[in-house]
Design a protein that fits this description.
Strand content: under 5%
Oligomer: single chain
Structural class: mainly alpha
Largest sheet: none
Order of helices and strands: HH
Shape: elongated
Helix content: over 70%
Distance between the termini: 72 Å
Low-confidence stretches: none
Number of strands: 0
Number of helices: 2
Length: 74
Amino acid sequence: MIRNALQPWHLLVVLLVVVVLFGSKKLPDAARSVGKSLRILKSETKALREEDAQREQEQTGQRTGRRTGADVTS
């Protein structure tokens, strides 16, 4: 039953419903908006990962007692 859950004709029906709901003129704009949203999401998740890696590196430096450039004062 699960094996035959998604057939090619199912995709055609979904595509037809999308075209009927949004119209063929709005589809390029909708696709552009989705693409823009995905790029924003990707950049935000990348920034969060970098921030977490930086925070983890700082915590590891504090645990080992090493001084970073920000810790040194003249």
